[in-house]
Structure formats: C-alpha cells, structure tokens
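User: Predict the structure for this protein chain, please.
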Amino acid sequence: MNSSDVNPWDVNPSDVNSPDVIVIGGGTGGYSTALRAAALGLDVVLVERDKVGGTCLHRGCIPSKAMLHAAELVDGIAEARERWGVKATLDAVDWPALVATRDDIVARNHRGVEAHLAHAGVRVVRGSARLTGPRSVRVEDAAAGQGAWGFTARRGIVLATGSRPRALPGLEPDGRRVVTSDDALFAPGLPASVLVLGGGAIGVEYASFHRSLGAEVTLVEAAERIVPLEDADVSRHLTRGLKKRGIDVRPGAGLLDAEVLDDGVRARVRTARGETVTVEAERLLVAVGRAPVTDGLDVAAAGLTTDERGFVVPADWDRLETAVPGIHVVGDLLPPPSLGLAHASFAEGLLVAETLAGVPSPPVDYAAVPRVTYSSPQTAAVGLSEAEARARGHDVVANSMPLTAVAKGMVHGRGGIVKVVTEAGGERVLGVHLVGPHVSEMIAESQLIVGWDAEPSDVARHVHAHPTLSEAVGEVFLTLAGRGLHQQ
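Assistant: Here is the predicted structure, written as structure tokens:
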C-alpha cells in the first residue's frame, strides 16, 4: 500500500474498516493531517466527497492566484508603456487560454496531492461521511457509488470539512450575474463592470483582478474601512492604492437591495454619509465571509455540538481536541483565533496528527501566522496591529517607513509602507505590517521575527541586501534600535 503506483480511489473500503485515524475532508487541513499521521506510522483513511485539495486548490487559493498573476502581467504592460517607455501594447485577453492555463495548474497540483497520499499509504474513500458515534463513521456512496461503508477509528477522528461562502438573504447566486468567491473565477467571460460586496481579503483580491482586466469596479464594505482586521495604516494605504487604480472604494456602506436584470444587476447602496446611491454592474460578487460546513455530518451522534455560528469549538486548543476525547478539528470548522487560512490549517493538521501519534507537538501560535492579501498593491502582516497591541495593555512604539524611501521602492513606483509595532523600551516585536508590490514574498522574515519574540536590536544587527524592497524592513528596525540612517 506504500507504493506510489497505488491509486487511492481504487481502495476497497471494506479492507480498511478499522484504521487508526479517520480524517473527514480532504482539503488542506485534512490531507496535511493524513500525510503527517501516515508518516508517523498510523493507518489512515481519508474521506472526501469531492476532490482532495478542497476549496483552496480547486476554487480558492491556487486558481485565484493564477488569475491574479495574469492580472499582474496585464498591469505590467501598461506600466511598461506609460512609465518606462517600452512600447508594449495589449491586443486582448484570451479568456479561454487564460482559463486553460489556470486549470492546468490546478490539475497538476491535484494529481500531486493524490500521488502524495498514495505514496504515503493513505487510503482515500470517496463519499459523504456521517458520524455514528465518538469513534465511528458511515460513508455513503463510497468508492464511486458502491454502497455505504462503516469505519471505526482506533485512535481518533479528525473533522476537516471546511467552509462555503456566506450568502445574503434574498440574493441567491446564479453563477452568472450574482456570484460567490467559489464560482467567480468560473463565471463566463470577463464582465465590463463588477460590484463587489465585502472588503476583506477575498473581496479586495477579486476587485483588484477585475480592475486589472479592464472592468469598472465598485467595492462596498460595511465596516468603516476595508480589510478591517488589519492595522489601520494598512487599510489606509491599501485604499489609496486601489483608488489610484480607479476602483471605487466605499467603506462604511451597506447593500439595501439588489435586482437581477437580463444584462446585469442594479443595486441600491447606503453610503457612509447616509446617502442612497444606485450602482449598476454586469456582475455582483458576494464576498461577505465564509461559513463552516457540517451538512450531513451529524455531530450530535458523536456527542458534539456547534456554536451559534456553526463552528466546532475545541475544548483543548493546545491539541485542537473537542469535548469528546479523540475527536479533533482543523481548518475552517474552527472559530477564531483560528484564521481560516490554508497555511494555518496545514499547521493545525501537523499538530493533530502528531497528537494522535503521541508525538510532542507545539500548539499553533496564531499570532505568528502571516496574513496576506494578493491584490495590487498587496498587503502582508503578522502579529498584532497597533490598536490590538494597545488594547492588550502593551506600552507601544510604532515606526513606519514608505517603500519609496528605498531605491528599489522607487523602481517599482507603486507606494506602500513598512510598519513595525514593538513594546516600548526596545523590547520584543509585536507586529509587522506591509503594503506594496511583492510584500507577500517579504513576510517570511517578519514571521520569524514575531514568532521568535525578537527585539529590534536583534534584527538591526543583520544586514539586508541592497537594493531590495526588504531593506525597508531592515531600515525600520535600525531606527527602532536607534541606529537608523534615513529616518529621524
């Protein structure tokens, strides 16, 4: 069973009805749990009713970032012509070709995940799982419709069934005029105009993508600022960058109603000033958050309950174990402080697998998990915002620097900032916040800084390469350590 030649879908469920671990859900949290548990010598069954890889691989992280890369190429052509004197032109965006490339990337990743599971000896059973007790699971229509199968876990069950986009009452998605983040990339063609409801990371990314490909975009967010969970300075600079690109950003606004027409959508929006405006667009994208999925899981049969939002709350966050011993939960089923991020679910999967194997494992430090918005400009952050740090009673010192203060930032010419939040007196770094081009690739250093409780002087002693965008991070830490050259 450990051969890479094994196709996990060809396994007969009746041959593995008493594994050590049953993982329900094959998204990032589920398959990372399965792979790590198998690597530690446990016998693992992974139940998935769709495709392994989950939302992230098939409808979220991977396809959306592929499309955003294409959008970046389009933006680069305009920049080449308008700023650098490179006489580049864009004839058109070949939507079918773009989609084919995206789908090829997704398909190759999907085959890779399946191969990893097969090589590790994880037995994958296709079907819908229902809990029948604290250690037992029934899978309907397993193995391509061959009936129902019962499984009993010797060590434990891991719930990793993920989430779905939240809908708005009276505004049903149709996949064409009204779409969610799950189907926005798969809607037909490129719209000339888009109304995006929701200014979190998902809404901002889709607003940015559509604007790059020529659409008129209105972005509506009910909170007083977009990306409201991030530092206020991040929100301010991101808003400035999006508006500079021609996106109509409307924070503090709410949808009153919307009417689906033959050729688009007409919506009434209440603005932050209390005015009512009408917005017409070819497509309306609802990006108002995601809801945990427990449909048909029958958590009550195992002695579990969900909270009022539908989350399964751990009794022990250090082990991500529920009130029923042996049942663990990872990924989007977890409430805050879990972040609903794919890379956080990877870490949760490792923790749970090691716990079930009896291997010591550190709990997930959610404060040290990076958060990224892949728009143009991008945002990246780790740790506490300035407001969060003050609310928790820290005596805070914050220092920031524009990316254009370093030469590479001038080369890119897109603005942005580096902001660092520390405890007063030169003590540990509490948070790092970035806005600008390619900052998603700069956050790893800051993750280590926050995760290792570094002090500004610890970072300031390390030399950053010149010319790079990351030297702006180094310069801020030099300033906080009293050694800055370019700031007072």
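Residues 95-120 form the longest helix (26 residues).
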